[in-house]
Amino acid sequence: MDSVYHLIRQPSRVVIVTHKNPDGDALGSTLALAAVLHKLLHTVTVVLPNDFPPLFNFLHGVDKAIIGEMNPELAMAAFEKADIIFCLDFNSLDRIDRFGLDVMASNAVKILIDHHIDPEPFADHILSKTEASSTAELVYDFLVDNKLEGYIDVNVAEALYTGILMDTGSFRYATNPHVFEIAAALKRMGMDDYMLQIRLFNSMTEKQLKLLGHCLANRMELMTEYQTGIIWLDRDDYKNWSIGRGDTEGIVNYILMVRNMKMAVFVSEQQNVTKLSFRSKGNINVQEICHTHFNGGGHRNASGGQLKASMEDTLAKVKEIIPLTMNAYQLQHEQ
């Protein structure tokens, strides 16, 4: 931390990059750090591997980010010229797609701030805490530890609180005492938590609400004997409903609202790959499932993966794994 402290006190060319398909935590932590470093007179560039859900358009500075998928040359040039590269909310370079090669090839000092398990050792400095609620929590601590809390204004506070809110589901999971202390500190700085709740959780479009109804009425299967539910959307659904980025966000969580459901799976058939999103309650480790069977990972209770397989084959594999997982959980629970 001492070396990083002195490093960020010297104005430099800084790039901050987060994972593909950036969510609220990725965007909130990235934009908060960018705003503070900008105040320290760094030249700051934010690179997002691909576009983000329109839900987060209100975040200050998000309109200035380089979308790598749309402007690859600009993104590559930023990495090439960087003195410092901050890698936020991901633990391996494949999470930023093609730009992982640019980060690895860069001579910049690399700093990783993340809360996912088993970070790859590609960075020069690593701030990794799996017990943290979010990367936004870690960025707040990073700023405080580097005596930069005086630079946290309302825009920064809103970005950090957005990251915390989204990764904890409004403080329903992955919480700890410290994250509530951070929330209190941000509110004291003038952050309007009520407004953020409205923007983030009461801003669905009519299409999104109807799509949710379609998923619950026509695409949900509950395997009650295994306390697990599955929701799936195939390529025809994506075409018929004109599903865009962010339209399916949070749908998987509705399964866990059903009494006695302990695990939820959302399966979506994309053009060249079928993606999976797992959620669970308690000690059911969906990160292990995703890592072992679906080329993915994440957290114990929230993880994702993918298969280069059809919807039919993917669902068959999911239904094969669910009994094994839940029977093992029941056995462990009984002991």
Overall mean confidence score, pLDDT: 95
Number of strands: 12
Strand order of the largest sheet: 3-2-1-4-5-6
The 3D shape can be described as globular
Low-confidence stretches: none
Q: Based on the coordinates given, report the CATH architecture of the largest domain.
A: Alpha-Beta Complex
Helix content: 40-55%
CATH superfamily of the largest domain: inorganic pyrophosphatase (n-terminal core)
Give the helix/strand class: alpha/beta
Percentage of residues in DSSP E strands: 15-25%
In angstroms, what is the radius of gyration? 20 Å
Look up the CATH topology of the largest domain: inorganic pyrophosphatase (n-terminal core)
* Total of helices: 12
Short key terms for the protein model shown above:
about 325 residues, alpha/beta, inorganic pyrophosphatase (n-terminal core), Diaminopimelate Epimerase, Chain A, domain 1, 2 domains, six-stranded parallel beta sheet, six-stranded mixed beta sheet, 12 helices, 12 strands
